[in-house]
């Protein structure tokens, strides 16, 4: 009875609280532009870097797979440290927003260096690739942990968070569309593709700095966590709070598996279109862009879906649909360009419809932990989400390249054997489908459905008011 009275009190007063304030369209767009900037790098790494390393830079698949995996050892240390640092940051501009201004220029420079081919020998080029990729991922961590944490502190309203993330991921996918529409065509403007990649990334880097500045200027942090002021917290204590959060453990595992599935598929997109379509040069940019266009529509419609379907059920259902859509590529054959493009559109549509739903579960699990432990740890929790994402990025890329190598794929633009072609098709279609199904089985274990999430948000409003 007391619980219901408290919920009713909160429902009556929630509209007047600052933390539950409706976020304006301009602020949502400004926040989304931050992810447009971030995705100039993320989508370039996801869609182009494996192909760039093997076909332009000149590395073999085993070396590229090792680069993707070894860098995660560094991330295992730096991601939690960065999360702990941002949770302890307090400035007149907020906890998280200052990092966008401080780090946007180094982040942009690092993205150019990764897509630059140095005039070194074989060993020097491997060392350069390791060094620049590690640097980029460190800066990716340092700017994306505070950026991603902002969702939880712009508003405490679960519906508003879903709306913010729907807009965010539409703009994020828009960043990917700019990459696929501009970077690949720009590489063809120079006789040497290495120069084309570098110059295209210089343009992306300049745009990213401008968009991060806009994001900083148009957003605001509002939510203050429920904390015991007298209690001194340590990084170790905060780590234990995150690890003890049973719902967040499931969210992190689902993130790892889902991103692994997406990366396996996306890593092989250029290989797939090159092998299975005769005029690949003509269709490759279109192929990647169709995915992005579908993704932009899917991300924007995610919040509409949640008006009719429970959030947990929607997440699970979309994962099964992604599995079916991915596996369908096994059956459509080569040179069927209409079916290839249609399927690519729907894969992008349902993949990105997941994104806003998936990401809000991190903030929802932080709410759950705040109620349980009376401490809000957005930054450190988000650091583990980001580490799970990057681990999935590396494992997915490594799985794709290792299986391609097992089936006999040879880098350098040479003709491939029938076995290698079958390996590419297997990695592009069946392997991600299996991992999507595994992710759905993890999501089924979530306790956080729409009703529970709403109740948790209302309870926190009461605690914050007290």
Automatic annotation (TrEMBL):
The chain crosses the membrane at residues 98-115, 127-148, 169-187, 199-219, 247-264, 284-302, 314-332, 338-361, 382-409, 421-446. Keywords: Membrane, Transmembrane, Transmembrane helix. PROSITE patterns: MFS. It comes from the Bacteria. GO terms for biological process: carbohydrate transport; sodium ion transport. The keyword Transmembrane applies. Pfam families: MFS_2. The keyword Membrane applies. GO terms for molecular function: symporter activity. One of its GO terms (cellular component) is plasma membrane. Gene3D superfamilies: MFS general substrate transporter like domains. Residues 23-447 form the Major facilitator superfamily (MFS) profile domain. Belongs to the sodium:galactoside symporter (TC 2.A.2) family. This is Glycoside/pentoside/hexuronide:cation symporter, GPH family. It comes from Arenibacter nanhaiticus. The lineage of its organism: Bacteria, Pseudomonadati, Bacteroidota, Flavobacteriia, Flavobacteriales.
């Amino acid at each position: 009875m007391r619980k219901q009275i408290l919920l009713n009190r909160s429902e009556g007063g929630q509209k007047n609280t600052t933390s539950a304030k409706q976020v304006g369209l301009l602020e949502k767009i400004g926040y989304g532009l931050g992810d447009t900037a971030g995705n100039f790098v993320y989508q370039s790494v996801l869609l182009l870097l494996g192909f760039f390393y093997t076909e332009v830079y000149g590395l073999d698949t085993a070396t590229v797979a090792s680069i993707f995996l070894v860098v995660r050892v560094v991330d295992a240390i730096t991601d939690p440290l960065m999360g702990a640092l941002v949770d302890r940051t307090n400035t007149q501009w907020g906890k998280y927003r200052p990092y966008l201004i401080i780090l946007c220029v180094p982040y942009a420079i690092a993205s150019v260096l990764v897509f630059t081919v140095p005039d070194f020998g074989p060993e020097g080029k491997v060392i350069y690739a390791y060094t620049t990729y590690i640097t980029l991922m460190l800066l990716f961590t340092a700017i994306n942990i505070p950026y991603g944490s902002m969702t939880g502190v712009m508003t405490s309203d679960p519906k508003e968070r879903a709306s913010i993330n729907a807009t965010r991921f539409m703009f994020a996918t828009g960043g990917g569309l700019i990459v696929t529409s501009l970077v690949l065509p720009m590489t063809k403007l120079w006789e040497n593709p290495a120069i084309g990649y570098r110059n295209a990334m210089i343009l992306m880097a300049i745009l990213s700095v401008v968009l991060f500045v806009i994001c900083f200027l148009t957003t605001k942090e509002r939510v203050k966590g429920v904390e015991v002021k007298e209690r001194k917290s340590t990084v170790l204590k905060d780590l234990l709070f995150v690890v003890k959060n049973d719902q967040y453990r499931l969210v992190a595992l689902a993130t790892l598996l889902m991103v692994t599935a997406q990366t396996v598929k996306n890593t092989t997109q250029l290989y797939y279109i090159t092998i299975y379509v005769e005029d690949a040069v003509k269709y490759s940019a279109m192929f990647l862009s169709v995915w992005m266009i579908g993704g932009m529509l899917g991300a924007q419609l995610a919040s509409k879906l949640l008006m009719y379907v429970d959030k947990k059920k929607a997440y699970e259902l979309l994962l099964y649909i992604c599995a079916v859509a991915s596996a369908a590529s096994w059956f459509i054959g080569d040179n069927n360009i209409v079916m290839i493009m249609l399927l690519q559109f729907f894969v992008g549509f349902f993949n990105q419809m997941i994104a806003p739903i998936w990401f809000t579960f991190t903030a929802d699990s932080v709410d759950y932990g705040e109620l349980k432990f009376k401490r809000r740890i957005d930054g450190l929790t988000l650091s583990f989400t980001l580490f799970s994402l990057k681990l999935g990025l590396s494992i997915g890329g490594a799985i794709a390249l290792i299986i391609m190598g097992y089936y006999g794929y040879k880098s350098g633009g040479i003709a491939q054997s029938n076995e290698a072609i079958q390996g590419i098709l297997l990695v592009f279609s069946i392997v991600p489908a299996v991992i999507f199904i595994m992710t759905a089985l993890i999501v089924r274990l979530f306790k956080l459905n729409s009703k529970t999430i709403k109740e948790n948000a209302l309870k926190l409003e009461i605690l914050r008011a007290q």
